[in-house]
């Protein structure tokens, strides 16, 4: 398990990362979310030892992380790590050799990964000859080569088409299923929602929320949707109800007191038929907007 505790980093007057603490447990995929400049890349660089923190610690399996641990991490940096003018296969082999793989095993893994991504015939090409999306697939392949013990990926899905997103998501999920902790940043909340066991939300350097989606949902506003026969406008005058929206026969409301649920339903039934009365869980986008507002 990777643990980040009270990490802090300032650049001049700016607190880019301010007392950030979270875990990336064994076998879990954790999404790292936050607006531009929130501090995600800076945090990842500190995890990887590329930037010294002003305060706080990074631990791996309960002890301070070492250079040797990090050497076995798979890291995809924001600025991307591979060389445009070198052959793909040579770079993938080089990276795997650094992590202790034999040349033959590295070549076999590079070939198998590239074939899996439909790039089996591009192995000897220079990276720059590939489209940007395909270059991105190679960058992800580089991070997962040689069985990394953890994956730290800075916006691995940006610029990928939906099919490539599915392929890469499948690849990361496989690694997580083998026990690898995976931390990746993304602005695509739908993807985080689909892939992640948990998420960490940063805003202006500070951690504003973390937990599983269920945990975050339960902290958010819970609303009910009521669909009746006629006009639902009467809910506006009903006690213990805060109306978010009424559109014809549909009302979206927040119930404010114990028993408000039963009282509202009873009143709706007294007035006619009820077609729907359901809890509306907040979407991840709504939770995100709420905690970063
Ligand atoms: N080397 C640096 N020197 C000065 N300021 C920096 C440096 N690196 C980052 N910053 C500043 O720290 C803040 C956090 O930046 P960071 O790149 O970590 O954010 P981010 O969450 O990754 O953003 P994005 O989603 O835009 O990539 C920003 O205001 C950025 O300008």
TrEMBL record:
Domain of life: Bacteria
Single GO molecular function: ATP binding
Statement: the UniProt record of this protein carries the keyword ATP-binding: yes
Entry-linked PROSITE patterns: ABC_TRANSPORTER_1, ABC_TRANSPORTER_2
Record key words, sorted: ATP-binding, Nucleotide-binding, Transport
Domain ABC transporter: 2-229
Gene3D superfamilies listed in its UniProt record: P-loop containing nucleotide triphosphate hydrolases (3.40.50.300)
Family: Belongs to the ABC transporter superfamily.
Protein name, entry field: ABC-2 type transport system ATP-binding protein
Native source species: Brooklawnia cerclae
């Amino acid at each position: 398990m990777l643990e980040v505790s009270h990490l802090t980093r300032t650049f001049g007057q700016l607190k880019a990362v301010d007392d950030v603490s979270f875990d990336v447990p064994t076998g879990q995929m954790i999404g790292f979310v936050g607006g531009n400049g929130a501090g995600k890349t800076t945090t990842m660089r500190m995890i990887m030892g590329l930037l010294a923190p002003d305060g706080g610690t990074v631990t791996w399996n309960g002890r301070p992380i070492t250079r040797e641990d990090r050497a076995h991490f798979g890291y995809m940096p924001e600025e991307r790590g591979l060389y445009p003018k070198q052959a793909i296969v040579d770079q993938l082999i080089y990276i795997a050799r650094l992590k202790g793989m034999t040349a033959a095993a590295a070549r076999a893994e590079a070939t198998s990964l590239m074939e899996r991504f439909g790039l089996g015939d591009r192995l000897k090409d220079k990276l720059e000859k590939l489209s940007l999306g395909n270059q991105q697939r190679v960058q992800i392949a580089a991070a997962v080569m040689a069985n990394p013990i953890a994956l730290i990926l800075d916006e691995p899905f940006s610029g990928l088409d939906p099919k490539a997103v599915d392929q890469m998501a499948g690849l990361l999920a496989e690694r997580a299923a083998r026990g690898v902790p995976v931390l990746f940043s993304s602005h695509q909340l739908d993807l985080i929602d689909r892939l992640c066991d948990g998420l960490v939300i940063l805003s202006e350097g500070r951690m504003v929320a973390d937990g599983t989606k269920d945990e975050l949902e339960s902290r958010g506003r819970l609303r009910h949707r009521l669909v009746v026969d006629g006009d639902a406008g009467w809910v506006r005058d009903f006690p213990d109800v805060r109306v978010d929206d009424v559109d014809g026969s549909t009302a979206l409301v927040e119930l404010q007191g114990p028993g408000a649920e039963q009282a509202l339903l009873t009143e709706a039934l007294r007035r006619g038929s009820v077609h729907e009365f359901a809890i509306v869980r907040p979407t991840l986008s709504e939770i995100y907007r709420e905690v970063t507002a």
